[in-house]
Amino acid sequence: MNDDIALSAEHVSVAFGGVHALDGASLGLRAGQITGLVGPNGAGKSSLFNVLAGTLRPQRGTVMLRGRDITRLAVHARAHAGIGRTFQLSRELDSLTVLENLLLAAPAQRGESLVGAVFSRRSVRRAEALATEEALSLLARVRLTHLADEPAGVLSGGQKKLLELCRALMLEPSILLLDEPAAGVNPALIGELGEFIVDLRNEGMTFGIVEHNMELMAALCDHVYVLAEGRVLTQGTFDAVTADARVQEAWLGAPA
């Protein structure tokens, strides 16, 4: 992999019983870019995405983070190393307010330990104030400030996706893996979601995205990998890969 690759899966294979979900697939997320993963249903996209995130361990192959082998690194350790992710189904806590959902996602504070609570009350209050400031700043960026004190359960599907993205950002990741960010989102909010992702990319964040909305992928992605039958069929710009006859055959059933 090149030096500009922030996170990669190299020659990974995953089998469930006798079925190969991944068969020697390799993918690299270029630093400061948005990399998309597309392909027909059953191609192995979710499996490869989960290998990168750490929720699925490959039987063969490696996962590398800036030259470091993290294949066996746990999910929480990957989060500490700067890898964040969102999920296809939003995981907000409906009974908590929008702001509380973000504060709950903030890194553990010293006040959560007995020693920290007794001896560092001032620093704990400072940390809590900073976390609240960061949370409110994120809500402002996605135009949800007016809902900060409302239960998260009142949010629309699109607003919940924006909230989940903000939750992931509370951990200050350098790499963010987005699983179907536009699923269930009203078309009116998809553009807003896309603009926020592009803004974050322009600020230096690295993205990996699995998404079925090809119009959004065309607008967002700097680079795209196409998976078919657990292998990388091709890679390149969105226009280049979708014009490839092999992709059309694998994805659309069109003759090559």
Short description:
The chain is of the alpha/beta class. It is 39% helix and 24% strand. The strands form two sheets. A six-stranded mixed beta sheet has the order 6-7-8-3-9-10, sandwiched between helices. Strands 2-1-4-5 form a four-stranded antiparallel beta sheet, with helices on one face.
How much helix is in the residues?
A: 25-40%
Which blocks of ≥5 consecutive residues have pLDDT under 50? Answer: 110-115
Question: What series of H and E elements makes up the topology?
Answer: EEEHEEHEHHHHEHEHEEHH
How far apart, in Å, are the first and last alpha carbons?
Answer: 30 Å
CATH topology of the largest domain: Rossmann fold
Number of strands: 10
CATH class of the largest domain: Alpha Beta
Structural class: alpha/beta
Oligomer: single chain
Going by CATH, the homologous superfamily of the largest domain would be: P-loop containing nucleotide triphosphate hydrolases
Which strand order spans the largest sheet, edge to edge or round the barrel? 6-7-8-3-9-10
Strand proportion, as a percent range, falls in: 15-25%
State the shape.
Answer: globular
Radius of gyration: 19 Å
Largest sheet: 6 strands, mixed
Average pLDDT: 87
Individual helix count: 10
Write the CATH architecture name of the largest domain: 3-Layer(aba) Sandwich
| Total separate domains | 2
